[in-house]
Amino acid sequence: MEISVIFTGGTIGSKLHENSIGTDSTAPRELLSRYRAASGDETVFKTVEPYTILSENLTMSHIQALAQAISEEQAVADALIVTHGTDTLPYTAAALSYIMGLSEKPVVLVSSNYVLSDPRANGVDNFHAAVDFLRSVPTARGVYVAYRNGEGATQILRAARLLPHLAPTDTVYTLNGIVATWENGTIQISNAYTEQADKIAPLSAEALTKNPKRVLLLRAHPDMIFPCIDGDIYAVLIETYHSGTLPTDSAALTAFAAQAKEKGIPVFAVGITGEKIYESATHYPALGIIPLPPLSPVAAYLKLHLTLSNGLDPKEILPRPLGGDM
Description:
- This protein is an alpha/beta fold.
- Helix content is 28%, strand content 20%.
- It has nine helices and 14 strands.
């Protein structure tokens, strides 16, 4: 199997310089060297570096450039590994899921919680798990993330189901997205994991830069302040409380929803489980708030962004599965 490795920076591509961590041109070679020492695998991987950043500086332009690099490498490789920073890992993972769908040439994103020279770093294990997963699971399709939390087994996660990080931990959470685990060189497929086939075509990455449509992302919290919606906003996405609720008694939310309706800007709510809803959520229709199916908030944000930029109707596209998000 031909596996290409795409380096983009992040902690896994960084080193400690005096009192701060920054990207380093020698870090990608160190990752491969440490992997060979740990695994005994002498494979010489083809490598590509479309850009090098700390991932907190990620933009839609970077995602578009990465998608282009992946497309080019898929023409010559059977599978790909992308190294990435942890801060925005869920965002790139979701975006690539919607750009690639359940592609027959899989991609696994890997990152590291510490620089590779730190004994606490999980980067080499994550990379090792990604290689073994791609080589041993011929049915792999679409985009995945390999990541080890703490001292447990490294997990292979469906990329479209990652949840936002909780500061200041480096734990990666997922919405029912554990596809497999890797431990001591062995891949164990999860019998509990399920996903739906793609029901829509993958979304074009080029639209992110050629026809960008900005999305206002808000998160529910007590005594929320809602901003004025300007002309650059094409949709609003509100992450609900864990029970799928928003403060529908709030005059601020009522006024905000009315402002959005007047300007013809759709307001979506993500976080609803599909189980019994609370009374507050029954007010969504009157406010014009559109509940989404169970999705990771990060995935909903990127799916909405890509849908609007591609000139598609989000009310039609967002409820339909793509890239294993449902």
